[in-house]
Amino acid sequence: MSSSTCAPETDAARTEADADLANALAHPLNGLLALAELMLQQPLPAAAKAQAGAVLEHGQRMARLLCDARPPNLFANAAPVALRDVIDDLEATLRTEMPDGRLIVTCAAPADLWVIVDAAALGGVLRATMSEALALSGWGVVELQVAAALELGGRAVISGRLQAPGCDDADGSLRRRCARILDTAGVSAAPRTDKGAGLDLPFRFSAAVAAEALYDDGEAGEDEAVLPPRTHILIVDDNATNRIVAAALCEMFGCSSETVEDGLEAVQTVGQRAFDLILMDIKMPHMDGIEATRAIRAMPGPTSTIPIVALTANADPEAVQAYLASGMQGVVDKPIRPEQLLNTLQRVLSERDETAQGKAGEGGATVVAA
Question: Which residues contact 16 (CB under 8 A, 6 or more apart)?
């Protein structure tokens, strides 16, 4: 009797410990994924590139496992992501696990619709529900349909339907399990409206739409792969791996860089030397990224106008508003992806130059960060 009474508490403690371990491993894993992405951008021999690709593949698989170990939350580590990319990745993963042709996945969302969600959590929750259906559907087909509709206020309603007509769910137990999985992540499952034997589970949730002005992640063409000549960037991050990745990418993009380890050092450095742009981590010791940005904006002269881009693993809507309010001009989420970083740098530097030209045309003083 004693052991059965304590079991729920033991299970709860184990679940909490697993979640804590998953959260602790997520940060260094992001660094490894960023390094693998960086290696794939280098002119490596074919064998080395294949090895880097394998490192990235296994790292992404580990990231999915860590996501499964944490209580799912679509907005816990939200960042801008193309909804269709999430669904495409989910389909690719499931086809690897279930290569028997029983899977149908369709996504009617626009290709350019970016929403702010935790992509790993969303993919993990949908994969968990589909795995439940695939396990019980015999040789029947399991189908996932996903669509999205924009609504006022900069949000999107994502609706879906999970169907497995060949499974035996007359008692509704499969449906209840799938609905429970969705509900834990904040996805609402519709009430059951029929008593059929198969599974038919509509669901929906809403998410903020990522503003194109803040999140650039398209593929850069050859003519766009170079930043303005002699561009000099200050990289501010307390994590050595992130500094290495960002500096290597800056070099790849044709610009020079310097690195510092916290916001206080960043403020001191920009007071001594000129930079065209600052890549600013958010969570740092001594002085965080928001405090450092405010301090730089309060400095006299052209230094106060240096464009600043946030480097962060937390890009939920409230956090983004805080970054912008502090004086930042853009956001790049971690792990750092080369295309997103390049396109964000191009946009921010282009806006800086347009502002300077506008002031010159008005006859005022031209203010350009060196």
Answer: none
Domain that holds residue 353: 222-361
pLDDT 10s digits, 133-172 = 877 766 678 899 999 888 766 788 999 999 888 777 778 8
Measuring CA to CA, which residue among 154, 110, 124 is closest to residue 22? 124
* C-alpha–C-alpha distance, residues 20 and 234, integer Å: 33
The residues near 268 (Cβ < 8 Å, ≥ 6 apart) are none
The DSSP-derived string for 175-243 is: HHHHHHHHHHTTPEEPPP----SSEEEEEEEEEEBPPTTT---SPPPGGGS-PSTT-EEEEE-S-HHHH
171 and 273: one domain?
A: no
The single residue listed with the structure tokens 């994924």 is 33
Residue 75 backbone class (left: φ over 0; alpha: ψ -120 to 50; beta: rest): alpha
Which residue matches tokens 């970083």? 341
- Let me know whether 123 and 205 are in one domain: yes
d(CA 213, CA 348): 9
Tokens read off for 249: 């990418």
Residues 138, 62: one domain?
A: no
- pTM for the whole structure: 0.53
